[in-house]
Amino acid sequence: MRKFMKFNTVSVMTASVAMLGMLGGCGAAPETITTTQTQEVQEAPAVTENADVTTPTTEVTPVETGDTAEYVGEGEIIVFAAASMTETLSELKDVYEAEHPEVTITYNFDSSGTLKTQIQEGADCDLFISAGQKQMNQLDSNASAEVNIEGLDFVDADSRINILENKVTLCVPEENPKNIQTFDDLAEALKGGDILFSMGNADVPVGQYTQKILAYYELDEEELANSGLITYGSNVKEVTTQVSEGSVDAGVIYCTDAYSAGLTIMDYATKDMCGQIIYPAAVLKTANNAEAAQYFLDYLTTDEAMRVFEEVGFSAVK
After folding, report:
1. End-to-end C-alpha distance for the chain, whole angstroms
2. For 206-209, which contacts have Cβ atoms below 8 Å and span 24 or more sequence positions?
3. Residue 265, Cβ neighbours under 10 Å: how many?
4. Fewer CB atoms near the end CB (10 Å): N or C, the chain?
5. 38 by DSSP, 3-state: which?
6. What are the phi and psi torsion angles at 56 (to 5°)?
């Protein structure tokens, strides 16, 4: 995290300078001349000490974070973040605002696809955290034209980082009515036509990861949906709710959402099934408060923040 000292305006009094002079031939007593000057300074000046000048002193009032002084900007930070980060980012907001009362964080949680569209259409957003690379790339002029097909240029490339890794999991309702234990069991149940399965829409990352899992098992999603075996959620929270309420027999959600909802994770998808689930984050070029947003993004990479993420199943990107 970048460190800055924040200084208050102070008044600096220069020291008295004594000058001694002898009056030629008259034997007069030495005369002392005192000069006092007041100067306003915005920041601590660089002063070289010498025999004739006293180094001025300034009162410094840094903003404190733990035992480290830092400047973190001020004002409102608008953060668009994937729905799967709702609980963790809400907790971190409380901590950050308590430590930095000059900052207010406003969240907009939804599917990454919906957030991308809102940004593209001009919604105010300082910091975007996506649950997939695709949605971030669609806003990044440095991404391949095959992904950023509209030539959008919203992402500050210098700020973009891969902040977290998540896991795709298979979850079932409490009584597990279809006795689904693994992804292999899920595939067999779908092939047998004896299950109601929930997954995310095709425009949201959790749905795209699930599509890869279905393809891994050579299952035809459209055929399964037309047969009434698949129901959809517009974001991962909707899929999680369907599983929690027992309205479906199984669902694919993130590890973090399973933890938050108190669901038992039956199986984890491997990289071969759907790849690595990386959450990229970036300050936007259209940000109204880019400086404060960058400091908050820096904070989200600290050990303090990572402990909160890890409690619900996130991990640092390796």
Report:
1. 19
2. 206/84, 206/131, 206/168, 206/235, 206/236, 206/239, 206/252, 206/253, 206/254, 207/232, 207/233, 208/132, 208/134, 209/132, 209/168, 209/252, 209/269, 209/274, 209/275, 209/277
3. 15
4. C
5. strand
6. -70, 155
> 223 — alpha (psi -120 to 50), left (phi > 0) or beta?
alpha
pTM of the model: 0.71
CA gap 217, 17 in Å, rounded = 87
DSSP classification of residue 50: B
Q: What is the mean pLDDT of residues 47-51?
A: 37
pLDDT, tens digit (0-9, with 9 covering 90-100), for 239-287: 999 999 999 999 999 999 999 899 989 999 999 999 999 999 999 999 9
Q: What is the Cα 302 distance to its own chain's centre? A: 11
Q: Which domains does the chain have, with CATH numbers?
A: 1-71 (no CATH), 73-166+279-311 (3.40.190.10), 168-268 (3.40.190.10)
- 3 state DSSP class of 205: helix
Question: At 274, which helix (H) or strand (E)?
Answer: helix 271-274
The single-letter code of the amino acid at 311 is E
Altogether, the residues listed in the chain come to a count of 318
What Rg do the C-alpha atoms of the chain give, in angstroms? 29
Distance in angstroms (rounded) separating the CA atoms of residues 297 and 39: 38
Average pLDDT over residues 56-63: 35
